[in-house]
Protein backbone atom coordinates (compact mmCIF):
# COMPACT_ATOMS: atom_id res chain seq x y z
CA UNK A 1 0.00 0.00 0.00
CA UNK A 2 1.27 3.44 -0.92
CA UNK A 3 1.07 6.55 1.27
CA UNK A 4 0.16 8.45 -1.90
CA UNK A 5 -2.97 6.46 -2.63
CA UNK A 6 -6.67 7.08 -2.02
CA UNK A 7 -7.26 3.78 -0.13
CA UNK A 8 -4.49 4.62 2.33
CA UNK A 9 -5.54 8.24 2.92
CA UNK A 10 -9.31 7.75 2.96
CA UNK A 11 -9.64 4.28 4.47
CA UNK A 12 -6.61 2.64 6.06
CA UNK A 13 -5.17 5.59 8.00
CA UNK A 14 -8.48 6.85 9.50
CA UNK A 15 -9.46 3.32 10.61
CA UNK A 16 -6.07 2.64 12.22
CA UNK A 17 -6.05 6.01 13.98
CA UNK A 18 -9.59 5.57 15.29
CA UNK A 19 -8.89 2.07 16.58
CA UNK A 20 -5.60 3.10 18.18
CA UNK A 21 -7.06 5.96 20.19
CA UNK A 22 -10.28 4.11 21.05
CA UNK A 23 -8.26 1.24 22.52
CA UNK A 24 -5.96 3.75 24.19
CA UNK A 25 -8.83 4.82 26.47
CA UNK A 26 -9.00 1.29 27.87
CA UNK A 27 -5.46 -0.04 27.98
CA UNK A 28 -1.81 0.85 27.40
CA UNK A 29 -0.93 -2.45 25.70
CA UNK A 30 -3.83 -3.18 23.35
CA UNK A 31 -3.18 -0.08 21.17
CA UNK A 32 0.36 -1.39 20.65
CA UNK A 33 -0.97 -4.78 19.55
CA UNK A 34 -3.54 -3.07 17.32
CA UNK A 35 -0.90 -0.90 15.65
CA UNK A 36 1.44 -3.86 15.15
CA UNK A 37 -1.42 -5.87 13.60
CA UNK A 38 -2.36 -2.91 11.39
CA UNK A 39 1.29 -2.61 10.29
CA UNK A 40 1.31 -6.28 9.32
CA UNK A 41 -1.90 -5.74 7.36
CA UNK A 42 -0.32 -2.73 5.65
CA UNK A 43 2.62 -4.93 4.62
CA UNK A 44 0.42 -7.87 3.62
CA UNK A 45 -1.68 -5.83 1.19
CA UNK A 46 1.21 -5.71 -1.26
CA UNK A 47 3.50 -8.47 0.06
CA UNK A 48 1.25 -11.10 1.63
CA UNK A 49 3.60 -13.92 0.60
CA UNK A 50 6.38 -12.45 2.79
CA UNK A 51 4.42 -11.79 5.99
CA UNK A 52 5.57 -15.18 7.36
CA UNK A 53 9.19 -14.26 6.62
CA UNK A 54 8.77 -10.97 8.49
CA UNK A 55 7.20 -12.72 11.49
CA UNK A 56 9.94 -15.37 11.58
CA UNK A 57 12.56 -12.60 11.42
CA UNK A 58 10.92 -10.83 14.38
CA UNK A 59 10.70 -14.03 16.45
CA UNK A 60 14.28 -15.03 15.62
CA UNK A 61 15.82 -11.67 16.48
CA UNK A 62 13.69 -11.21 19.59
CA UNK A 63 14.77 -14.67 20.80
CA UNK A 64 18.46 -14.00 20.18
CA UNK A 65 18.13 -10.57 21.77
CA UNK A 66 16.43 -12.13 24.80
CA UNK A 67 19.41 -14.47 25.21
CA UNK A 68 21.82 -11.54 25.06
CA UNK A 69 19.81 -9.37 27.46
CA UNK A 70 18.42 -11.79 30.04
CA UNK A 71 20.33 -15.09 29.91
CA UNK A 72 23.50 -15.35 31.98
CA UNK A 73 25.92 -16.28 29.21
CA UNK A 74 29.70 -16.15 29.42
CA UNK A 75 31.54 -13.84 26.96
CA UNK A 76 32.18 -16.61 24.43
CA UNK A 77 28.54 -17.67 24.44
CA UNK A 78 27.43 -14.06 24.02
CA UNK A 79 29.70 -13.64 20.99
CA UNK A 80 28.34 -16.90 19.56
CA UNK A 81 24.75 -15.73 20.07
CA UNK A 82 25.49 -12.40 18.39
CA UNK A 83 27.24 -14.15 15.49
CA UNK A 84 24.27 -16.49 15.10
CA UNK A 85 21.80 -13.61 15.05
CA UNK A 86 23.70 -11.36 12.63
CA UNK A 87 24.63 -14.30 10.37
CA UNK A 88 20.99 -15.41 10.25
CA UNK A 89 19.83 -11.92 9.29
CA UNK A 90 22.51 -11.51 6.63
CA UNK A 91 21.86 -15.00 5.26
CA UNK A 92 18.18 -14.25 4.69
CA UNK A 93 19.02 -10.85 3.19
CA UNK A 94 21.67 -12.45 1.00
CA UNK A 95 19.37 -15.17 -0.33
CA UNK A 96 16.50 -12.88 -1.23
CA UNK A 97 18.47 -9.85 -2.38
CA UNK A 98 21.80 -11.08 -3.72
CA UNK A 99 21.50 -14.76 -4.74
CA UNK A 100 20.33 -13.84 -8.24
CA UNK A 101 23.13 -11.29 -8.61
CA UNK A 102 25.75 -13.85 -7.55
CA UNK A 103 24.29 -16.44 -9.93
CA UNK A 104 24.44 -13.99 -12.86
CA UNK A 105 28.10 -13.25 -12.21
CA UNK A 106 29.00 -16.91 -11.76
CA UNK A 107 27.25 -17.68 -15.05
CA UNK A 108 29.20 -14.92 -16.78
CA UNK A 109 32.54 -16.20 -15.42
CA UNK A 110 31.97 -19.95 -15.69
CA UNK A 111 29.72 -20.08 -18.72
CA UNK A 112 26.97 -21.80 -16.75
CA UNK A 113 23.23 -21.17 -17.03
CA UNK A 114 21.94 -21.22 -13.46
CA UNK A 115 18.74 -19.16 -13.27
CA UNK A 116 17.55 -17.78 -9.93
CA UNK A 117 14.42 -15.65 -10.11
CA UNK A 118 13.79 -14.74 -6.46
CA UNK A 119 11.19 -12.10 -5.64
CA UNK A 120 12.57 -9.38 -3.35
CA UNK A 121 10.50 -8.77 -0.19
CA UNK A 122 9.74 -5.06 0.06
CA UNK A 123 11.46 -3.39 3.01
CA UNK A 124 13.74 -6.34 3.84
CA UNK A 125 16.85 -4.13 3.88
CA UNK A 126 15.25 -1.73 6.36
CA UNK A 127 13.87 -4.23 8.85
CA UNK A 128 17.05 -6.34 8.66
CA UNK A 129 19.36 -3.41 9.49
CA UNK A 130 17.00 -2.25 12.22
CA UNK A 131 17.23 -5.65 13.93
CA UNK A 132 20.98 -6.06 13.44
CA UNK A 133 21.47 -2.78 15.33
CA UNK A 134 19.22 -4.14 18.10
CA UNK A 135 21.30 -7.33 18.42
CA UNK A 136 24.63 -5.50 18.44
CA UNK A 137 23.41 -3.11 21.14
CA UNK A 138 22.03 -6.05 23.14
CA UNK A 139 25.47 -7.69 22.97
CA UNK A 140 27.04 -4.41 24.12
CA UNK A 141 24.70 -4.35 27.12
CA UNK A 142 22.87 -1.25 25.90
CA UNK A 143 19.36 -2.71 25.62
CA UNK A 144 16.69 -3.13 28.27
CA UNK A 145 14.34 -6.11 28.20
CA UNK A 146 11.38 -5.18 26.00
CA UNK A 147 7.99 -6.86 25.75
CA UNK A 148 7.38 -8.76 22.53
CA UNK A 149 4.45 -6.57 21.36
CA UNK A 150 6.58 -3.42 21.67
CA UNK A 151 9.48 -5.06 19.86
CA UNK A 152 7.18 -6.33 17.10
CA UNK A 153 5.76 -2.84 16.64
CA UNK A 154 9.28 -1.38 16.60
CA UNK A 155 10.15 -3.60 13.62
CA UNK A 156 6.84 -3.45 11.73
CA UNK A 157 5.73 0.15 12.44
CA UNK A 158 4.17 0.94 9.08
CA UNK A 159 5.32 4.58 8.62
CA UNK A 160 8.92 3.30 8.38
CA UNK A 161 8.57 -0.36 7.33
CA UNK A 162 8.78 0.00 3.56
CA UNK A 163 11.38 2.71 2.95
CA UNK A 164 12.78 3.86 6.27
CA UNK A 165 13.99 5.61 8.26
CA UNK A 166 16.11 2.93 9.94
CA UNK A 167 14.80 3.10 13.50
CA UNK A 168 16.70 2.68 16.76
CA UNK A 169 15.18 0.77 19.64
CA UNK A 170 16.28 3.32 22.27
CA UNK A 171 14.43 6.03 20.43
CA UNK A 172 11.22 4.23 19.46
CA UNK A 173 10.27 1.57 22.01
CA UNK A 174 10.12 4.01 24.97
CA UNK A 175 7.69 6.09 22.89
CA UNK A 176 5.53 3.02 22.25
CA UNK A 177 5.52 2.32 26.00
CA UNK A 178 4.30 5.81 26.97
CA UNK A 179 0.66 6.01 27.96
CA UNK A 180 0.40 9.64 26.79
CA UNK A 181 0.91 8.66 23.15
CA UNK A 182 -2.26 6.52 23.28
CA UNK A 183 -4.46 9.60 23.63
CA UNK A 184 -5.11 11.99 20.72
CA UNK A 185 -3.19 15.25 20.82
CA UNK A 186 -4.87 17.88 18.63
CA UNK A 187 -1.68 19.86 18.15
CA UNK A 188 0.36 16.83 17.04
CA UNK A 189 -2.51 15.72 14.82
CA UNK A 190 -2.61 19.11 13.10
CA UNK A 191 1.17 19.21 12.66
CA UNK A 192 1.14 15.66 11.34
CA UNK A 193 -1.51 16.51 8.74
CA UNK A 194 0.45 19.58 7.59
CA UNK A 195 3.74 17.67 7.28
CA UNK A 196 1.97 14.81 5.50
CA UNK A 197 0.41 17.32 3.09
CA UNK A 198 3.81 18.82 2.28
CA UNK A 199 5.26 15.37 1.66
CA UNK A 200 2.31 14.34 -0.51
CA UNK A 201 2.76 17.48 -2.61
CA UNK A 202 6.48 16.77 -3.02
CA UNK A 203 5.78 13.24 -4.22
CA UNK A 204 2.71 13.61 -6.43
CA UNK A 205 3.37 17.06 -7.90
CA UNK A 206 7.14 17.59 -7.82
CA UNK A 207 8.76 14.13 -8.00
CA UNK A 208 6.16 12.59 -10.32
CA UNK A 209 5.94 15.86 -12.25
CA UNK A 210 9.58 15.81 -13.34
CA UNK A 211 9.84 12.06 -13.88
CA UNK A 212 9.10 12.22 -17.65
CA UNK A 213 12.23 14.33 -18.20
CA UNK A 214 14.45 11.54 -16.86
CA UNK A 215 13.88 9.70 -20.14
CA UNK A 216 15.86 12.37 -22.00
CA UNK A 217 19.05 10.75 -20.72
CA UNK A 218 18.21 7.29 -19.44
CA UNK A 219 15.91 6.04 -22.19
CA UNK A 220 17.64 7.61 -25.19
CA UNK A 221 19.94 5.54 -27.39
CA UNK A 222 22.31 8.43 -27.99
CA UNK A 223 21.48 11.52 -25.89
CA UNK A 224 22.95 14.86 -26.83
CA UNK A 225 24.98 16.99 -24.41
CA UNK A 226 21.98 18.99 -23.24
CA UNK A 227 19.65 15.97 -23.13
CA UNK A 228 22.13 14.02 -21.00
CA UNK A 229 22.50 16.88 -18.55
CA UNK A 230 18.78 17.63 -18.43
CA UNK A 231 17.93 13.95 -17.86
CA UNK A 232 20.60 13.53 -15.17
CA UNK A 233 19.47 16.69 -13.37
CA UNK A 234 15.82 15.65 -13.70
CA UNK A 235 16.60 12.35 -11.96
CA UNK A 236 18.66 14.21 -9.35
CA UNK A 237 15.64 16.34 -8.45
CA UNK A 238 13.11 13.52 -8.86
CA UNK A 239 14.98 11.38 -6.34
CA UNK A 240 15.33 14.38 -4.02
CA UNK A 241 11.61 15.18 -3.87
CA UNK A 242 10.58 11.51 -3.95
CA UNK A 243 12.69 10.59 -0.92
CA UNK A 244 12.05 13.90 0.83
CA UNK A 245 8.32 13.45 0.25
CA UNK A 246 8.33 9.95 1.70
CA UNK A 247 10.34 11.11 4.72
CA UNK A 248 7.90 13.94 5.38
CA UNK A 249 4.85 11.72 4.96
CA UNK A 250 6.30 9.12 7.34
CA UNK A 251 6.97 11.79 9.99
CA UNK A 252 3.52 13.31 9.49
CA UNK A 253 1.70 9.97 9.79
CA UNK A 254 3.68 9.06 12.89
CA UNK A 255 2.94 12.42 14.53
CA UNK A 256 -0.77 11.69 14.20
CA UNK A 257 -0.15 8.72 16.53
CA UNK A 258 1.86 10.92 18.91
CA UNK A 259 5.16 9.29 17.87
CA UNK A 260 8.22 11.25 16.73
CA UNK A 261 10.30 9.65 13.97
CA UNK A 262 13.93 10.70 13.42
CA UNK A 263 14.66 13.18 10.64
CA UNK A 264 16.05 11.27 7.65
CA UNK A 265 16.46 14.05 5.11
CA UNK A 266 17.85 17.54 5.66
CA UNK A 267 18.33 19.52 2.42
CA UNK A 268 21.34 17.45 1.26
CA UNK A 269 21.92 19.44 -1.94
CA UNK A 270 22.75 22.46 0.20
CA UNK A 271 25.81 20.59 1.50
CA UNK A 272 29.18 22.26 0.91
CA UNK A 273 31.14 18.99 1.09
CA UNK A 274 30.48 15.32 0.50
CA UNK A 275 30.97 14.68 4.23
CA UNK A 276 28.16 17.14 4.94
CA UNK A 277 26.07 15.59 2.17
CA UNK A 278 26.11 12.25 4.00
CA UNK A 279 25.09 13.98 7.22
CA UNK A 280 22.01 15.26 5.40
CA UNK A 281 21.07 12.44 2.97
CA UNK A 282 19.43 9.27 4.31
CA UNK A 283 20.69 10.28 7.74
CA UNK A 284 19.65 7.11 9.58
CA UNK A 285 21.48 4.91 7.05
CA UNK A 286 24.58 7.08 7.41
CA UNK A 287 24.40 6.71 11.20
CA UNK A 288 23.94 2.93 10.91
CA UNK A 289 26.92 2.55 8.57
CA UNK A 290 29.04 4.71 10.87
CA UNK A 291 28.07 3.04 14.16
CA UNK A 292 27.78 -0.59 13.06
CA UNK A 293 30.28 -0.87 10.21
CA UNK A 294 32.79 1.98 9.92
CA UNK A 295 33.64 2.25 13.64
CA UNK A 296 33.81 -1.56 14.21
CA UNK A 297 36.17 -1.76 11.21
CA UNK A 298 38.46 0.61 13.06
CA UNK A 299 37.16 4.00 11.95
CA UNK A 300 39.92 6.58 12.05
CA UNK A 301 41.71 5.04 15.04
CA UNK A 302 44.54 3.33 13.15
CA UNK A 303 46.00 6.00 10.93
CA UNK A 304 45.02 7.86 7.81
CA UNK A 305 45.54 5.04 5.30
CA UNK A 306 43.35 2.54 7.18
CA UNK A 307 40.78 5.26 7.66
CA UNK A 308 40.47 5.62 3.90
CA UNK A 309 40.30 1.83 3.50
CA UNK A 310 37.51 1.66 6.10
CA UNK A 311 35.63 4.50 4.39
CA UNK A 312 35.90 2.76 1.03
CA UNK A 313 34.69 -0.59 2.40
CA UNK A 314 31.80 1.09 4.22
CA UNK A 315 30.59 2.95 1.14
CA UNK A 316 31.03 -0.08 -1.13
CA UNK A 317 28.79 -2.08 1.17
CA UNK A 318 26.44 0.89 1.47
CA UNK A 319 26.14 0.94 -2.31
CA UNK A 320 25.50 -2.80 -2.42
CA UNK A 321 22.83 -2.36 0.29
CA UNK A 322 20.87 -0.24 -2.18
CA UNK A 323 20.70 -2.95 -4.79
CA UNK A 324 22.23 -6.11 -6.22
CA UNK A 325 23.87 -4.62 -9.29
CA UNK A 326 27.31 -3.42 -10.32
CA UNK A 327 25.91 0.06 -10.89
CA UNK A 328 25.23 0.35 -7.15
CA UNK A 329 28.72 -0.95 -6.37
CA UNK A 330 30.22 1.76 -8.60
CA UNK A 331 27.96 4.36 -6.98
CA UNK A 332 29.18 3.30 -3.52
CA UNK A 333 32.81 3.22 -4.71
CA UNK A 334 32.48 6.74 -6.08
CA UNK A 335 31.13 8.06 -2.80
CA UNK A 336 33.88 6.24 -0.92
CA UNK A 337 36.45 7.95 -3.15
CA UNK A 338 34.69 11.30 -2.68
CA UNK A 339 34.83 10.93 1.11
CA UNK A 340 38.51 9.97 1.05
CA UNK A 341 39.34 13.01 -1.10
CA UNK A 342 37.25 15.24 1.18
CA UNK A 343 39.04 14.05 4.33
CA UNK A 344 42.45 14.28 2.66
CA UNK A 345 41.73 17.86 1.56
CA UNK A 346 40.57 18.79 5.07
CA UNK A 347 43.81 17.38 6.49
CA UNK A 348 45.95 19.31 3.99
CA UNK A 349 43.94 22.55 4.19
CA UNK A 350 42.67 22.67 7.80
CA UNK A 351 41.45 26.27 7.65
CA UNK A 352 40.47 28.86 5.05
CA UNK A 353 41.19 32.60 5.44
CA UNK A 354 38.07 34.51 6.39
CA UNK A 355 37.87 36.62 3.19
CA UNK A 356 37.86 33.40 1.15
CA UNK A 357 35.40 31.48 3.35
CA UNK A 358 32.26 32.39 1.40
CA UNK A 359 33.71 31.75 -2.10
CA UNK A 360 35.19 28.46 -0.88
CA UNK A 361 31.80 27.36 0.53
CA UNK A 362 30.08 28.24 -2.74
CA UNK A 363 32.71 26.37 -4.74
CA UNK A 364 32.40 23.44 -2.35
CA UNK A 365 28.62 23.35 -2.77
CA UNK A 366 28.89 23.42 -6.57
CA UNK A 367 31.59 20.73 -6.67
CA UNK A 368 29.67 18.54 -4.21
CA UNK A 369 26.48 18.81 -6.25
CA UNK A 370 28.34 18.00 -9.48
CA UNK A 371 29.95 14.92 -7.87
CA UNK A 372 26.56 13.76 -6.57
CA UNK A 373 24.94 14.17 -10.02
CA UNK A 374 27.70 12.09 -11.65
CA UNK A 375 27.21 9.34 -9.07
CA UNK A 376 23.41 9.40 -9.51
CA UNK A 377 23.91 8.48 -13.18
CA UNK A 378 25.28 5.10 -12.09
CA UNK A 379 22.56 4.81 -9.41
CA UNK A 380 19.82 5.19 -12.03
CA UNK A 381 21.31 3.47 -15.08
CA UNK A 382 20.43 -0.15 -15.83
CA UNK A 383 24.02 -1.05 -16.73
CA UNK A 384 27.46 0.44 -16.29
CA UNK A 385 28.02 0.87 -20.04
CA UNK A 386 24.73 2.80 -20.26
CA UNK A 387 25.88 5.08 -17.44
CA UNK A 388 29.22 5.65 -19.20
CA UNK A 389 27.36 6.49 -22.42
CA UNK A 390 25.37 9.19 -20.59
CA UNK A 391 28.47 10.57 -18.87
CA UNK A 392 30.24 10.61 -22.23
CA UNK A 393 27.41 12.70 -23.65
CA UNK A 394 27.58 15.02 -20.62
CA UNK A 395 31.26 15.61 -21.42
CA UNK A 396 30.67 16.41 -25.12
CA UNK A 397 29.39 20.01 -25.51
CA UNK A 398 29.83 19.82 -29.29
CA UNK A 399 26.72 17.63 -29.58
CA UNK A 400 23.76 19.86 -28.70
CA UNK A 401 20.11 19.40 -29.70
CA UNK A 402 18.42 22.22 -27.74
CA UNK A 403 15.03 22.24 -29.35
CA UNK A 404 11.67 23.30 -27.92
CA UNK A 405 11.43 20.24 -25.63
CA UNK A 406 14.89 20.88 -24.19
CA UNK A 407 14.11 24.56 -23.53
CA UNK A 408 10.90 23.60 -21.68
CA UNK A 409 12.85 21.01 -19.67
CA UNK A 410 15.48 23.60 -18.76
CA UNK A 411 12.80 25.97 -17.45
CA UNK A 412 11.26 23.22 -15.31
CA UNK A 413 14.62 22.13 -13.92
CA UNK A 414 15.50 25.74 -13.09
CA UNK A 415 12.29 26.02 -11.03
CA UNK A 416 13.15 22.80 -9.20
CA UNK A 417 16.69 24.01 -8.52
CA UNK A 418 15.29 27.22 -7.01
CA UNK A 419 13.01 25.18 -4.72
CA UNK A 420 15.90 22.96 -3.61
CA UNK A 421 18.37 25.73 -2.84
CA UNK A 422 16.18 28.68 -1.86
CA UNK A 423 13.12 27.22 -0.11
CA UNK A 424 13.22 26.16 3.55
CA UNK A 425 12.83 22.46 4.31
CA UNK A 426 9.85 20.96 6.09
CA UNK A 427 11.45 20.68 9.53
CA UNK A 428 12.47 24.33 9.26
CA UNK A 429 8.95 25.41 8.33
CA UNK A 430 7.35 23.33 11.07
CA UNK A 431 10.02 23.63 13.77
CA UNK A 432 10.25 19.84 14.00
CA UNK A 433 12.62 18.89 16.83
CA UNK A 434 12.80 15.12 17.13
CA UNK A 435 15.32 15.13 19.99
CA UNK A 436 13.17 17.30 22.26
CA UNK A 437 9.80 16.04 20.97
CA UNK A 438 8.62 19.46 19.84
CA UNK A 439 6.92 20.58 16.66
CA UNK A 440 4.97 23.56 15.37
CA UNK A 441 5.32 25.82 18.39
CA UNK A 442 4.40 28.82 16.23
CA UNK A 443 1.08 27.12 15.40
CA UNK A 444 -0.12 27.51 18.96
CA UNK A 445 -0.87 31.18 18.19
CA UNK A 446 -4.38 31.51 16.79
CA UNK A 447 -3.54 33.63 13.73
CA UNK A 448 -0.60 31.48 12.65
CA UNK A 449 -2.66 28.37 13.25
CA UNK A 450 -5.33 29.55 10.83
CA UNK A 451 -2.73 30.57 8.23
CA UNK A 452 -1.04 27.17 8.36
CA UNK A 453 -4.39 25.40 8.17
CA UNK A 454 -5.36 27.25 4.99
CA UNK A 455 -1.92 26.68 3.44
CA UNK A 456 -1.93 23.00 4.40
CA UNK A 457 -5.42 22.53 2.95
CA UNK A 458 -4.26 24.03 -0.35
CA UNK A 459 -1.09 21.92 -0.47
CA UNK A 460 -3.03 18.78 0.48
CA UNK A 461 -5.59 19.48 -2.24
CA UNK A 462 -2.89 19.83 -4.91
CA UNK A 463 -1.13 16.70 -3.65
CA UNK A 464 -4.40 14.78 -3.49
CA UNK A 465 -5.35 15.74 -7.04
CA UNK A 466 -1.88 14.77 -8.25
CA UNK A 467 -2.14 11.17 -7.01
CA UNK A 468 -1.50 8.69 -9.79
CA UNK A 469 -2.90 5.17 -9.88
CA UNK A 470 0.48 3.51 -9.28
CA UNK A 471 3.47 5.68 -8.43
CA UNK A 472 5.82 3.87 -6.08
CA UNK A 473 8.52 5.59 -4.07
CA UNK A 474 12.00 5.02 -5.50
CA UNK A 475 13.33 3.65 -2.19
CA UNK A 476 10.72 0.87 -2.26
CA UNK A 477 13.26 -1.11 -4.32
CA UNK A 478 15.78 -1.25 -1.52
> How many domain regions?
2
Q: What's the tally of helices?
A: 20
Coarse shape: globular
Which regions are unreliable across 5 or more consecutive residues at pLDDT < 50?
Answer: none
Gap between N and C termini: 16 Å
DSSP, total strands: 0
The proportion of residues forming helix, as a percent range, comes to over 70%
What is the radius of gyration? 23 Å
Series of H and E elements: HHHHHHHHHHHHHHHHHHHH
Estimated structural class: mainly alpha
Sketch the major β-sheet.
none
Beta-strand percentage range: under 5%
- pLDDT averaged over residues: 90
What oligomeric state best describes the polypeptide chains here?
Answer: single chain
How would you describe this protein?
- It is a single chain.
- The protein has 478 residues and is mainly alpha-helical.
- The protein folds into 2 domains: 6-182, no CATH class; 186-477, no CATH class.
- It is 71% helix and 0% strand.
- The protein is built from 20 helices and no strands.
- It is globular and about 70 Å long.
- The relative contact order is 0.11.
- The model has no long low-confidence stretch (mean pLDDT 90).
Task: Provide a quick synopsis of the model.
The protein is mainly α. The protein has 20 helices and no strands. α3 (51-69) packs antiparallel against α4 (75-110) and α13 (283-297) packs across α14 (304-322).
